[in-house]
Write a structure and sequence with these properties.
The longest helix has 22 residues. Helix 2 packs antiparallel against helix 3. Among the domains are: 125 residues, no CATH class; 82 residues, Arc Repressor Mutant, subunit A, CATH 1.10.10.10; 134 residues, no CATH class; 145 residues, no CATH class; 237 residues, no CATH class. Helix 19 links the parallel strand 99 and strand 100. It is built from 21 helices and 100 strands. The strands form seven sheets. It has a 30-stranded antiparallel β-sheet that branches. The chain has a 15-stranded mixed β-sheet that branches. Strands 71, 72, 74, 75, 76, 77, 78, 79, 80, 81 and 82 form an eleven-stranded antiparallel β-sheet that branches. It is flat, with a radius of gyration of 61 Å. 35% of the residues are buried. With 1559 residues, the chain is an alpha+beta fold. 18% of the residues lie in helices and 42% in strands. Keywords: Signal.
Amino acid sequence: MRILRTALLFCILALAGKTVSAQNLKLSDDPGQFMVQLRKLMDGSRNPQYIRSAAQLDSVWMSALNTSQQTKFINIIKTQISKGQKAGPVMFLLIRNTHAFAKQSPENLEGFLDLATNSGQKYDGKTLQKVLETVRTINETNKLYAANYNSLYLLEGTYKYRFDTTNAVTANAEATVAAANDSWDTPVDSNYVITPKSNPLPVISGAMLDLQNATFAMVTASDSVVFGPANGSVSLKDGVFVGKNGKFNWQAGGDSSIYADLDSYSFNISQPKLVAENVTLHSDAQLAAPIKGTLEYRGVKKIKGQPAPYPRFVSNGIDARLKETRKNIDYKGGFALIGTEMYSSSLSDLPSTIKVKYKDKLAFTAQSKKFELKDSVIAASFATYSMPLGGDSLYHPGVTFKYNDDEGLVKLGRVERTDYAPLPYKDTYHKMNIWSQAMRWRFPNDKVEFFRINGKQVAPVKLESLDYFKKERFKDISKEYGFQPLIMAANYTQTEKKSAFLSDDLARKFKQKPEIMRNTLQRLTLEEYFIYNKETDEFALSKKGILFVLANLDKADYDNFQVTSQYTANDETANATIYLPDTMLTVLGVSRFVVSDSLKIYAVPQDKKLIIGKNRNFTLNGQMVASNYQFRGQNIKFDYNQFFVNVAPSDSITFTPREKFAKGQKGEVGGHVKYEKGGTFYLSDPKNKSGLQKGVKKSPRLVVEEGMMVYFDQPERGTVIYPREVNFKIPKIDMGGLDERDVIFEGTFNANGIIPNIQTVLKSMPDNSLGFEYKPPVTDMKLYEGKAMARFTDTLTMDNTGLHSKAILKYMSASMTAKEVLLTADSLMASGEVASIKEATIGKGYFPAVQLKDYALKWYPNADSMFINTQGKSFSFYNGTTSLEGGLLLRSSGLYGNGKLKRADSELSSPDIKFNKDGYLANRSEFAINSVDQKSTKKLLTGKNVNIDFNFKTGIANFLTDDTGFGSDSSGMEIPTASYKTLIGSAKWDMAKKTILMKGFGETSSYTSTDPDQEGLTFNGSEAIYDVEKVTLNIKGVPFIQTADVKIIPDGGLVSVDSKGKIAPLKKARIEIDTLNTSHRMRDADIRIDSRNHFEGSATYQYITARKDTFNIKMQNFELREIGAAEEGKKQRNGNQAPASVKYYTTARADIKETENLLLSPRIQYKGGINLIAYEPSLQLDGFVKPVIKFRKDFQSSWIVYKDAPGETVAIKIDKDLKNEHEIPLSVGLHYNEAKGMYMSFLSPKDSDGDEDIYTAQGELNYNEDEKAFKVMPPPGADGLIDEANALRFDDKTGLATFSGPLKLTGATWLQAVGTGEAQVDSARFSFNTMLLMKLPALEPISQPLAAKIVEVNLEEQNSTAADDDAEQLNNKLSALIGSKATDAYAKLTAAGYKPLFEASPALDVPMLLSNVNLHWSASHGAYYSQGPIGVANLGRNNINAQMEGVLEIRRSVDGDEFSLYLQASPDVWYYFDYKLGELGVVSSQVDFNDQITAKSKNVKSKDMSLVSIGSEEKDAFVNRFDDFYQPAIKKAKLAAKTTKKKVVPAEKKKKVEPTEGF
């Protein structure tokens, strides 16, 4: 611890000593010695930069500085040493700057040394360092300021340094203020416009940089701007430039055509901002002339997708004029720019004015301090708006404003959260205030529209008269402010005899706080209670304020006219609309509005529409109410000035009797009064609209010059309505004082012949109707122009119940005493206790004697019909054998009846019964013949809608359907004992023979079972006889019986129904099933019909096979099944919905055994079920099929599941999912087994599941009789066509199969094959014509030289035979590989000449394509070997297209498939390829080619295949082995030729310089 303290002390002393030595350093005045000392001083800093700067100055010290300059520099250094500076930043900057000036600009060196001398003396070290750093930055970078965020470049101009001491005190003070007021770091509002406050230019002194024609560039990380040339000075101490002149371009804002000419200005060089006053802005595109104003720029970060926030400009005044690009817009005001966004702001804070014309007339005027000015759109967040309107105006003091000149569209809205938001639009034409959230005016449609905006806060559109007053509103002012300023102002003006006053005076007089009083008066001025004079600062009561003061004292007239619109507006329709051509104001969504509370005047538009005209006149369709009077009609017109309602002829006036109205009871009278030419109803004196003005009348008055007519056809009369010919005529009316009495009218009642016309008084009746009470004379009076007579025994009264009284009535042979008589326009109704009809014959009418008690009648004089009913009594006729329960009809032609007519043997109900002496006639009746068994409740026969002629004397009753027929459920006859009903046309009941014979009008009529178990079984028949005693129904002429979709045709058309309602079983019947698409026929049917949806039995079906052979099938198990509607019906019933009708279809089934040998199609046998489904055109097979292979027992197929409907041919679908009845997979094709080798399957299982598929057939298999072979046709291609060339054909007699398509010769990925094949199953011989795609990536590097040499030799050898010269054979292979569409396209391409195969499809661009190779399979060697020439198409994209001599062997091996290929272009040019275990060995007779292989093989290696070089001996070994295995005869020929050749030319081999193998 002690050692540590000693070490620390030593360090402190050492440092102190060094500091002392620096302060006490005495520098020499000798320039040479001084420089040595200076360098030693700087070397002591151990700062490489400091040390280097001293060395650099030393290098020019004696050559670039004169003696005077050296002396000045020495003194500068001494001064800093004396101030305690050491080898630090200040010394470094002095040395570095001096060296820079001496070397680069010696002309400025003197000025710098003077500057450094004065600055060093006047400034402290920190300030001096700042000055020197600025000088260094200028020298080295041409920057006045440099920092990470921003820089200020000096791009052009001249400068010099000086030190100014003239304004030091002032400059220091202003610099302090400027630093305090700097707002560079304050957030910038994007809508901020320059403050109107003017700042004087600062005064600078001290270290200065004078600039001439200086061009500045303010650069930040995200923006830059260039301006100048300017003249001025930079305070190096404060970093402030003060100067004038220059041009500021708006390129940073996005428009370089805009610029400002700068006047005097200043800015801080360390901050990228500029504010310049009194600049002149030039914008030729927007301004008619340049304008003066203030410019501001800040180098802030630009936000992507938003306009530039700077530079900005604001004009001094409102003298800017825009260019006249829009002839309709006249603008005068301020001009401001934020970037390129234009506004109307100015530093004067005065509003700008926009006047817009439409059709050369002033449309509107808008004023705002800040319009947003765009090319065709002008907008403001606050503006005043006014427009001329019919000699008056529409005005609002504060709205949001938007005008689109292209569309001619003005949009105004509320300035929310301000005192202006609740203010209305003042309409002086209609004398209405309009409160609306928004307004729009589309010039073309001439509509000024007011509407509400739907949202969270929906405010209805409200309209209010300019003379509106309510005491509640007057009181609300007091509640809101705590005092009543209107009364105070009125009192002040009256006591002080002054019409205007200061707010302080009013506050002082009534002891209120001045600021509260002033705020109150300002707020009420906005609401137009006061007027404010800005020049005198005085307030005065307005017309509205005076109205409220006087109306509150009932000393001024007013109204309560207020309208509210709750309509949901849209783009097409608004709440309120002023149509400018006629200036009418239409308001929608008006439910009810008040005109005067005290007079109880209000209106209810029926269509919720109100039309307001000039000075509050309005029109509506609906109802207007004034106290106890109501006006209803269309186009009701109200005159506000005269305060009356025009009553049109089509309108109605009703009133509630005063007594009821006073009690608050309802009941209107007079709605049926019609004013022939209209009238006038004065609601009150026009000077007393409030109804509260003393000494002024308020009584209603009705004036109708032409009189009026009262009718009795109002809806409230119910069914007792009289035509217009029945009326009450009233002469001229002028009736006042209607608030004190009800209305009565004297006139004439015109009865239109009901009774004679009478004179009486029309008045209000107790039931709220207009009627009368008339006392008739005590004599008979004609009724209905004399058709009957009446002697009235009581007052004749007219009210809502009609014209009624009491009377004795006389008509025909009847006489009736009536307690109640009601006379209507076309009938008379009466009731009483006693009446009688005497037996008589009057004219052609017979009237039996009838006594009536407790009767009621209704008589239609014009129809000659008097209907008489008794209460609970029946009428008796024909000596008591017949009774009628119902009513009588008395006519001049006789007596008729309706109701239920009863006899012992029958009964009926009919609305039309005619009584005569021998019996009766009854039409449209329901009848029943009673059973002979007294105990039985069942009827023999019943009928509906039947006309009956019943004759008592003959005992015959004839029944005939009514003329309306049986087309509805209300008609027909029923035989309950046989459980059947029928729509038969006629029936004859012979009471003596006890039979009922039924016949139809046409050929047949329907018979329907009523037994629920038979489910509405229905059929037709021509005639039926019902035997009453045997209880049987025998029906003839039955064409068929329909059960669901099946027709059962009875033998001979006879059907018998027993006593239980069952149809006897049918023998030898026929069955037909006919639907829209199907037809099935069966014969020899034995059938028992149980119901409409069920029958049992059997029938024979004749089935026609595909070979047109007939096969009889016995169908059984007939069954009806529900179809879709049934299921739907069940769902609906479960869901408590109406059940759907259930529909059925017929099914039947037959089972075919194998022994029956049913051939559906040639050589295709079937066993299993055959289903008949009625709606299917063919029988449905549900069983098994198999091909009948006669000559190949080893290919006998097992049964294959088959579920289909057979057509003209039956085909077995061959696909990968094919299985037999035991679920064992089956196939058709060629396969490879490791042990067995290659074999063929034909609808048989593979030997092993793991066997490889070389070829598999897909499609439909059938037997072609013409070719005597089975064929598998492939499925249709994408074009819908079947490629028959790719079919498999198998002749089971010869055992030969041919096929074509894709071939999987091996499992290797390097080989893809297509082609045709032939298999001889007896000898197991397999051969192929193939196209082989050899995917050998290792061959690609040598493909080009290989192909080039082959082509060269082929040309020399004139080998022009195409690789595959059989076009059809080639196209078949191509189609199997690339599809028929691409093959057809290639065929068209080659029509004009050969094209390489790789142009047919990219799939053919492989390293080696052999397009024509004949291969055979060798079972003993497990390999494919070629025979004949090999067609070489291309090697990659190197075309060859030639047949070449050679041999190919493809070997299947346990270690992997291999191949060897030998190709010979000529006897001297050959190539050999051998692939095994991932290596492709290649050798050629060409030495240079073998060298290339050797070179390339080092690089051509991959995980799949590598290229290796091999020797020619491997080629020889392969060729010899190939000849031994596959062509021994050819080998013998070669040996013979070789021996002969050696004998003839023994020296041939010696001519070769080197072996052809290249070694």
